[in-house]
Amino acid sequence: MVVGDFPIEIDTLVVGAGPGGYVAAIRAAQTGQKVTLVERGALGGVCLNVGCIPSKALISVGHRYEHAKHSEDMGVVATDVKLDWAKAQAFKDSVVSKLVGGVEGLLKGNKVDIVNGEAYFVDANTVRVINGDNAQTYTFKNAIIATGSRPVEIPTFKFTERVINSSGALSLPEVPGKLVVIGGGYIGTELGSAYANLGSAVTIIEGGKDILAGFEKQMTQIVKKGLKKKGVEVVVNASAKGVEENENGVIVTYEAGGEEKTVEADYVLVTVGRRPNTDEMGLEEVGIKFAERGLLEVDKQCRTSVPNIYAIGDIVPGLQLAHKASYEGKVAAEAIAGEHSIVDYLAIPAVCFTDPELATVGYSEEQAKAEGIEVKAAKFPFAANGRALALNQTEGFVKLVARKEDGLLIGAQIVGAGASDMISEMALAIEAGMTAEDVALTIHAHPTLGEITMEAAEVLLGNPIHIVTK
């Protein structure tokens, strides 16, 4: 039976404690609001617990293992490299534990009230939080919904012990001898690359004409070259039909080139997209308008059609990125406080932790031209950089896109070692309204990968030092 309650009055209610929700709660508290944060699972949401953080920990383990086995070119020869999978999983879990504990400390330090349970909206100013047999009513002036998303399940690939989603892929009891990945987007390609580094024979089955559709073909070609080197088989223009489980693993059936084929594996990882968590919360009854695919309509301050209720992260249109959710959380909290914060996504980077890494920000050359913007673009290769040579990681390039009339930087694409870190400089340059000349005149430390950005700017200006152009 549900215990009766008296409503608790608060200023701002935040639903969901992922990278959007907990950041929104902290920023709201910093503006003087009395904040309650409701989370049905663990603090940190998908990102910290079963997403960005644990996947990057295992990707790092894979890199260490692969480098230990294959560094003969640098004079490092290891004859008996072993992978302690239990210890690798413990390392991953320790990273997650530290960050989740850190989030809890930050919330408490900012005097945010943390409540465990599921939120159901009664009306535009009231929510019921249910936790087992107990329930508590909260009345609020404003609310921020940050409930994130969950993996899409294909009817013919119901999740089991052997048919897994991205969360399950991070906690496997052993490294698969063989792994099939359905979906060649950033999640499938990242995890497929990681397990290939850890020793799995990986097959990626993609329905589109290429993997990593959100990135330029010049970039993905380098990643595909790396995948081939690892022995990963990539099948495109393919349709996954079904899966049969047996005591030894799975048999996946797919169609490609007009033929039906099968592939055996220990596990099949399904990564065909994520669904917003906007159902079973009472949002329809409150009058919040939905966009396509269960997403919520919001304005430039992340405000829904109900003026005092905001929404951020994976449940609103746009890229499903943790840093986008955090950014929107700050905008929403500041808007509630009466500040004139609005979203501007031009300088929001996107990163894929493949081998090598991919990163992009702003316009690609094709996107700019499609919008009628006259641009100049220039590339500089990692192979001409001293630091990249010293690291023995020379695959890749930095490409800059600038407005033709004044050299204003409006986009950058990086593929190569450290791309995930390097892209921040270009995000800052675009956000600050810098030109190619500004970047070229900025003294970069030598020898570093960061110099590649400066060199690309010099190519754009027509006066490169370390490559010869026609």
Please explain how this structure is put together.
With 470 residues, the chain is α/β, with parallel strands linked by helices. 31% of the residues lie in helices and 26% in strands. It folds into 3 domains: 8-150 and 275-336, FAD/NAD(P)-binding domain (3-Layer(bba) Sandwich), CATH 3.50.50.60; 163-272, FAD/NAD(P)-binding domain (3-Layer(bba) Sandwich); 350-461, Enolase-like, domain 1, CATH 3.30.390.30. Strands 1, 2, 3, 4, 5, 6 and 17 form a 7-stranded mixed β-sheet that branches. Strands 8-15-9-10-11 form a 5-stranded parallel β-sheet. Helix 1 runs parallel beside helix 9 (322-336) and helix 3 (52-69) packs parallel to helix 6 (186-197). The radius of gyration is 24 Å and the shape is globular. The termini are far apart.
Write the layout of secondary structure elements.
Blueprint lengths: L7 E8 L5 H10 L4 E5 L5 H6 L1 H18 L15 H25 L3 E4 L1 E6 L2 E6 L2 E12 L3 E3 L11 E2 L1 H4 L8 E5 L3 H12 L3 E5 L11 H13 L3 E3 L2 E9 L2 E8 L2 E7 L1 E4 L3 E3 L6 H4 L22 E3 L10 H15 L13 E3 L4 E6 L2 H6 L4 E7 L4 H6 L5 E7 L5 E8 L2 H13 L4 H5 L10 H11 L9
Parallel strand pairs: 1-2, 1-6, 2-3, 6-17, 8-15, 9-10, 9-15, 10-11
Antiparallel strand pairs: 4-5, 5-6, 7-16, 12-13, 13-14, 18-19, 19-22, 20-21, 21-22
Keywords:
five-stranded parallel beta sheet; 3 domains; 470 residues; FAD/NAD(P)-binding domain; alpha/beta
Distance between the ends:
78 Å
Would you identify the CATH architecture of the largest domain?
3-Layer(bba) Sandwich
Count of alpha and pi helical runs = 14
CATH class of the largest domain: Alpha Beta
The CATH superfamily of the largest domain appears as FAD/NAD(P)-binding domain
Tell me roughly what share of residues is in helical segments. Answer: 25-40%
* Tally of discrete structural domains: 3
Biggest sheet descriptor:
7 strands, mixed
What's the Cα radius of gyration? 24 Å
Poorly predicted runs of 5 or more residues: none
Number of strands: 22
Shape: globular
Can you give the mean pLDDT?
96
